[in-house]
# Entry
Amino acid sequence: MPKPLTTPRIAALTVTVKSVAEIQLLPAGRFSARDGRPFIPEGWQLDATIAGAVIAQAATRQTPFVIDYEHQTLLSEKNGLPAPAAGWFKTLEWRDGDGLYATDVEWTEKARAMIEAKEYLYLSPVFSYDPQTGVVLQIKHAALTNVPALDGMTEVAVMSAYAARFSDQHIERKDDSMNELLKKLLANLGLAETTTEADALAAVAALKTRADLVAPLETQVAALKTATPDPARFVAVETMTALQGEVAALRTKLNGQELDGVVSEALKAGKLLPAQEAWARELGGKDLASLKTYIAAAPVIVPGEGQTGGKGQGGGDGKALSAEQQAVCKQLGLSEKDFLESLSAQA
# Structure
């Protein structure tokens, strides 16, 4: 920004305000008032670089800029009249190709009513500038007026108090509705209300991945439900169950017949006593192979029918036991009486 060569000059122009929240103070580029000011060939100058310095200077202020009526702030010392405020602003913003804006304007109720009634249409900014170059140096304040010095600026416009309240309430309700919706979505995802945006998006992505994996399986299940089974490859569950029952019954019958044969042969061979028959059948019913193994390894306790001709054998007269028979009784835990009774029954 060019350095001023002489004492800065003050200019008061008239532009228009676009809304209650922001107003255009000065246009971009080179500009002049309709009365010829600043009376230098190039006119005033304002670009992004110049505006940056103006904005930086404004940011150092503790008090906001005032907007008065008809520049009474400048005239009050001469005419002795008060200079009531129409509004206030503090923040400046540069917009390329458009100009310098005040973005946080607060109007008084009186000024708002007058603007809505079109009793005031334009804004006149007061600023200092370099008299040699026309470079804008500093914003001072502004005024509502009906005599604009610049053409092409927008008119003053404000929202009515009712419209402003309605808009605020509408936005608030919309935000509340959106918050409730987000809470419900998070709850359905099994997430807490404090979940970060990144974690929520990750959960949604994971859910979508699972859905993509499940979709083909659902299609296959639906196809299986509607398909007619091939009788050459599949049978009904009821048929299979009945067949399994028949097989189990046949296996039980065959096992029973085989057990009868094994026990009968062992009794005839003298490897089982009649007193052992119940035990042998119980073991064979549970594990026929174990019973066969036992009988195969068991010694002949008493001579079988093939050895005695169907007659029992005692210790000479059928009532005394031999030393071998006595040893068998001892091993089996049988009394001589029980042993003799088993021999008699077998005979």
Summary: The chain is about 45% helix and 15% strand. The longest strand covers residues 136-145.
